[in-house]
Amino acid sequence: MTKRISSADRDFILRSLRAGLVPKRGISHILVDRDMELREAKYDIDMIANGGSAFRIVVGRYGSGKTFFLTLLKELAHKNKLVVMSADLSRDRALAGGQGTTVEQNKAMALYRQLVTNCTCKSFSTGDALKGIIERWLTDRLEQLESANINLSSMIEEIKASLAPLKEEYVMGYTFRDAICIYVRSHIQGDETACENVIKWLRGEYNTLTELKRDLRLDRLIKEDNYYDMLKLLARFFSMAGYKGLLIILDETVALLNLSKPTRDKNYEKMLLFCNECHQGDVEGIGFYFGATPEVIEDEYKGVFSHRALKMRLQPQNRLISHSTGGPLIQLSKLTKEHLLALLMNIACVFNSGRDPNDEERRAIHIFYERIAKYFGDEIFEQPRELVRAFVEALHASKESNIPLEETIKDMTLAPLDYDSEEARIYAKKLHHSEDVELF
To answer: What is the pTM assigned to this prediction?
Structure first.
C-alpha cells in the first residue's frame, strides 16, 4: 500500500528525526496509537472553531510522546484554520512573574513575547505570522473599500468602525483599535517604521510609556496584568481576519516546580483563570493546551494539585477512570514494544516515500529493534530518540551503500549522541530556525 507524502515533508521528517528532533510538520505520518486522544483534540479544535473554548493538560512520562502529540495538535489546528501560538515554560518564562530581579518580574512578558514570536498558521507555518495575518486582513479590507472609491480618511473611519466591537469588549480594545488604524494609515503612506513599531507594540516589546507615546502616541503598554486580555483580543481579531480562532500550546510545565512558592502560586492562579473562563464559556474562539509530566500534576507540595481549587477542577471524579479522556487531563500511556515497532514501520514508510515496508524490510526492522533494545535496555521506552536516530541512520546507510537493510543493521556500530552538547543544540537551531528546539 502507498500513502501520499510530499518529497518536502519526507525530507524534513527524516532530517528532523536524524537530528533527534520532533518534526514540526508531517508528524501525522509517523504518529502511533493515539486515536482516543486525537478524538478529544479534534473535538476541542471544533469547539474553538465554532466560537467555543478548551482547556487541557496533556500528561505523560518522559518518552510517552507529549511533544509528538502537541506537534500533531498544531498541525490539526492549522488544517482547521486556527492560528497557533506556542512556547515552552522555563526558568525565564512563566504565566506570572515574581518579586526581586528584573528577570523574575518579567517572566510573564517573556512568555507573551515568545508566544507572539511563535505565532503560526497554515499560510505562515514557520513563526512570526502576526504581521502576515494583519497584512492579509488589511489587503482584503482595502480591496473592498477601494472598489467603492472611498478616500483615505473614509477608509480609516470604515476600518475603525469595523473594529469597534473590540473596543467595547476588551480592556485593551481601544488601544488595539488605534494601533491597527495607525498601521493601516502608515501602510498606505509607505511608512514602514511606523508599521514595525505597531508590530513591536503587539509583541509587547515596549517597556516604557514615554517610548510608546513618542513612537505611536498610544497610552497603554502590554504588561503582565493585561497580556491575557491581549491574547483573547488577538483571538477575536484572528476570527475577524478569516481564521477560526486561536490555540495556545504551552509545554515544559515542569518548569513551574522550580519557582519560589509565592511565584508558583501566582502561576497556578493564572492557570486556574484560564481553566475557569474556558469551562464557563467566558471566552470565545480560544483554547489552551499544556504539556506536563505526572509529577507536575500530582506533587502535593509543588505540583498543580497543591493548589486546591485547581485540583478540584482537574482531578477525575472517579479515580478508576483517571486514564480516560473527556476531562481536562489527557493521560498518555507509556510507549510499548508494539508502539515502537509501529513507529519504525511508519518511519520506513516515510523513507520509502509512502510505500509500506516489504517482508524483508519488516524482518530487518524486528532485528533492528531487538538489537537496540538489548543495547539500550528500558531506556528506549523513556527516550526513544536513540532508537529513531539509529534507525534513520541505518536506512540512509543501506540506501547509500546499496546493501540490504538487514545486513546494514547487523554491521552498524551503536554510539549514543550527546543531545545536551552545544554542537547538537546549534545543529537543531539551524534545522528548525528557532531557539526553542524540541527533542524526544
So the answer is: 0.85
